[in-house]
Design brief:
A hairpin with a 5-residue loop joins β2 and β3 (about 40). The termini are far apart. This protein is mainly alpha-helical. It has a 3-stranded antiparallel sheet, with no helix packed on it. A 3-stranded mixed sheet has the order 5-4-6. It is built from 11 helices and 6 strands.
Length: about 375
């Protein structure tokens, strides 16, 4: 016999919590009663072999195709936009500088996140196929949080690069070389796994023996914690502490670096230089706010009983802070950069001249006949 404990201390949302309690009652019907909040699970229980992505619980079936097309368009646009940056970096030697190495790292991370998160959600609404195998769901959870942690570290590296470039302009070329930035980037890609591997290993040992419907757009820690048969409060608290560490330790340095940047900018003699630097910082600050603030809201909701939201709003918030930055990053970090705009303009000009020359050759051949 395996002894487990009743769920205490985890509140997701009002509707999710009600669904959770009903499913827990159904689960108890297969268990032997015990005093208090403790109960024993029948040793013959069947462990969950697959999970089902529910998505938006209140969405009516007639809107499924529309939602699927929306996410498909979002996925294609995000991947194409970020791939364009990777191709530009690979082909243009003038872009192979530390700042652009960070941009490429962020672009690859964004491609990875959307590729992990969106295809199953699209299949859920296009073909009503929301099922995921147990280990596939855990793998998706791992990669979702991995790319989230990686983005946080990449933003930290970006803030460090801007801090050194603006506050130490003469030493910056010696400190931040391509080799240094490549090493920092590889370090971020490796370290991001540490925080998520521990959580994933813990979840493989958790008892999932009852409900298997995930009230979320993809497998993540919050949605899976609600389905654990035992007392998940310790697991959730550990995951919450890890998430807050990987999110807000980098954020603390980012805020510090931006304060130093603003002080340095205010000391500039050139008004045009101040405006240019402030413009760059405001753009990055906008992305950082979108990335950090909604995450804090979603992860902190269970600790504030008066802070309640519906499952649909919670999912929408999660999708917004997860998918909106990858969508607009190529436009913000690329199209606002003069070097990239110049290269894109040259590419367009070459394509037009090539098309014109081909049309001229076709017309000459036609006239000769």
């Amino acid at each position: 016999m395996v002894t487990v404990y009743g769920a205490m201390g985890v509140v997701i949302t009002t509707a999710q919590h009600n669904i959770y309690k009903i499913e827990r009652l159904l689960l108890k019907s297969h268990c032997q009663g015990c005093p208090g909040s403790m109960f024993q699970v029948d040793e013959n229980y069947t462990r969950v072999s697959q999970f089902v992505i529910v998505g938006f619980p209140s969405l009516q079936p007639q809107y499924f195709d529309l939602v699927a097309w929306f996410f498909f368009f979002l996925y294609v646009t995000t991947v194409v936009g970020n791939l364009l940056l990777v191709v530009l970096f690979s082909l243009e030697h003038s872009l192979q500088k530390p700042m652009y190495i960070i941009m490429v790292s962020l672009a690859l991370s964004d491609i990875g996140f959307t590729t992990v998160a969106l295809p199953k959600l699209i299949a859920r609404y296009w073909w009503n196929d929301g099922s995921l195998g147990f280990h596939t769901c855990l793998f998706q959870k791992h990669m979702i949080h991995y790319f989230g942690s990686l983005n946080s570290l990449v933003l930290l590296t970006m803030a460090l690069d801007r801090y050194l470039a603006i506050c130490f302009p003469f030493r910056y070329p010696m400190w931040m070389t391509n080799q240094t930035m490549t090493g920092l980037t590889l370090f971020c890609w490796a370290v991001a796994h540490i925080f998520t591997v521990i959580s994933t290993i813990n979840f493989t040992m958790m008892p999932f023996c009852g409900p298997n419907k995930i009230i979320q757009a993809f497998c993540d820690t919050l949605s899976l914690t609600a389905l654990v048969c035992g007392n998940p409060s310790q697991t959730f608290n550990a995951a919450y502490a890890s998430a807050m560490f990987i999110l807000y330790v980098p954020l603390a340095f980012i805020i510090f670096s931006y304060i130093c940047i603003i002080v340095s900018v205010l000391q500039m003699a050139s008004g045009q230089g101040r405006m240019k630097t402030f413009s760059t910082c405001a753009t990055q600050g906008f992305i950082i706010c979108i990335y950090y603030l909604p995450r804090f809201f979603v992860y902190s909701t269970p600790f504030f009983p008066n802070l309640k939201t519906t499952p649909d709003k919670s999912i929408l918030t999660t999708l917004f802070y997860s998918l909106f930055p990858p969508l607009i990053n190529p436009f913000i970090y690329c199209l606002r950069t003069k070097a990239i705009r110049r290269i894109l303009t040259d590419w367009v000009r070459r394509c037009k001249s090539l098309i014109s020359s081909k049309h001229g050759q076709i017309a000459a051949v036609t006239n000769s006949h």
